[in-house]
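Trying the structure run again after the queue cleared.
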Amino acid sequence: MSDPTVVVPTRDDPVIAGSAELIGGDLGRHAYSSWRFWGPLPILVLFAIGGFTLGLLSKLPCTLSGWQDPGRYTHLCYSDIPPLYSLRGFADNMLPYIQNPLPGQEQLEYPVLTGLFMTVANWITPHDENGTLWFFYVNAVMLAICLVIAVVATALTVRRRPWDAAMVALAPGTILCATINWDLLAVALTAVGMALWARRYPTWAGVAIGAAAAAKFYPLLLLGPLLVLCWRARRMNAFVRVLGGALGAWLLLNVPVMVINFDGWVRFYKFSSERGEDFGSIWLLLTNIGAGLPASVVNKVATGLFLVLCLGIAVLALRTTRRPRFAQLAFLVIAAFVITNKVYSPQYVLWLIPLAAMARPRWRDFLIWQVGQVIYFAAIWLYLVGYTSENKGLPIGWYSVSIIVAIASTCYFGGMVIRDMIQPEHDPVRTDHFVEDRDDPGGGVLDGAPDRGAREAVAAAVDEPTATASA
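Done. Tokens:
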């Protein structure tokens, strides 16, 4: 017995099918009836809560010791949340951006919506002798809600494939990195934006993406793939609507702070542009092997390399025989941003996990990529032990190897996505057991839209203005 409306992982994914034999094989008639009663979403929510709780338990050595060095590195339980409680004025009930920091503190270097998220958490936090611990756990609960939203939104993006969202809930990167920083806020809003786009609400999708960009910069980059795909599909009206929604939401959240205290608001953007090479980046790797670039050059070269990669992705998207799916291009663009960035923090993997689950929902390739990310997760903290305990940290050579492994694993997964784009017969979403041939079931207005390749798109760009002028 099978559900004609949902792809069942034990029959669709070879890794899950093989693992299912360990617990009795594929779902039978009675098991299927019970599963159908519950539905995928409640089970996925339980997966998300369970994975998040497991990650939270891994932070116990730090919560018990107060995040002291070098323990927070040796126990692999580092988090930015506790130190910023005092270093950014939350312990003193300072309002980020609005009020100037006290001596020994710095202005918050995060986008506005993330700052608001932290402020709300601070309002809930009991300010007693355990304020730092309370602040961490209040933020953790709020981030857990964000993870649940991201998992549910991913499950709803492609209705026939809700179980792909289990990758988001159970990914090792999710479990290990969920509470390092506040990235899950932007991840949740981005996932909601993609779900709204899939439901053909481009304006509201834009609002969600604009709000996500007010929490982290990277969601704004999704507009690039949408521009290319809407151009190829003759759906530019939808792109204008998503662009308008994104711009409106971003301005609504940012302009009030800009007006009240521009210097406080601009701190994030100045910090991002002025920082040099940092942990996890290919630029630090070059420095480690003696081929580093001057700090004044790294920013320009990193930006230039990212733009070159984006151009290559756009050309590929226009030249493929069949129009790529939105999730595929989204993963490639964000992966290019992560790889070329001046810093690659371990939690950046959270940006990619929902996109990977929709771009290529195959557990084998997903886990290969995740293993590379876990290796880097452990390596960065063990390397930082050397900053507090001389001659006890991971040697710089092995740390450099971990950077290569992290980048190579991301490139591997990206290569598999590119293969699916060039040869759609390998795309798991387009070759599942559904008889109906769907173009991009998560693509919203792009799904089933007209398709034109590079030559037709260029010709249309030239002819349309001419036709307008003649009219």
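The chain has a mean pLDDT of 90. Worth checking whether this holds up in the mutant runs.
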